[in-house]
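Give me the fold.
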Amino acid sequence: MWTQHHDLHSHSLHSDGDHVVDEVAQLMFDEGVLVWSLTDHDTTSGWEEGAKAAARRGMRFVPGVEITCEPALAAQEAQLRANGLERPSASWHLLAYFPDHQPGLNEEDVAGFKAWLAPKQDGRLPRMKAMCERLSSLGMPVDIEDVCRRASGSVGRPHLAEAMVELGYVATKREAFETWIGDGLPGFVQHEKPTVQEAVAAVKSAGGMTSLAHPRYYGVPTKTLASALVELGVDSIEAVHRSHNDAYRHELMTEAIAQGLSITVGSDFHGLARQPRPGNMPIQHQGLDERLAVNGDHQQPKPPRTEE
């Protein structure tokens, strides 16, 4: 049986999204989403707003965060070409979900995780300063304070791109990324990131679960990727993502289930200026982790399959 009631990957003004949390919740609700997760980059600052916004609309809210990690495997050129990419992402993104956490109530359950995450968010500021300095050396001075004012939580490259557009250096945010601040380009600066193993340990210590976001961007063959995720202790893979075509979604779902991984689904919604709507992401019930059920009544997932 298939469902379109889940959207477990979205962003707000707390990171690089275009809308306040309540607007994101309304857009999800309007598209028939019943289980929604706000997964801003490296920050939990929108959780309480998200929980309240979802409750007002009768949706289930799953507190989430998208953690920026070091790549666990090197990309393969053949897979990049098959995925229609010239180069892989400079980082892997791990979605962390806390299905049993109630923001504002049982905060002690996630206190350790938040303490672990805080330096990762703080580390974004020195990197942004370095990127502004690099752009200045390229003849495009950008005020770091102006960039930071654009972010309600985690400051990131989309906020810098927005400033570059307003300053007239580029015509669009896309041009900023494709010409200057995308991975490996002249204005790009790398920053320290946790390993996937470190992130998984931090999430699990707080009772959470993990899913690898948008695997298409990493250029790793599906079978190899799924095997690595099992080895790393990752629970799920985001098989259904807006960047995946139907064939790739089917390939990911089939291999994930064969290797004992569950599946998550996400539109990776950032705003109406970038995509027409959130939600509307079909996925099979049997692939979803039971902890992400619509009614919230869940059991522990089945253990991964083992070779007999």
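The chain is about 35% helix and 10% strand.
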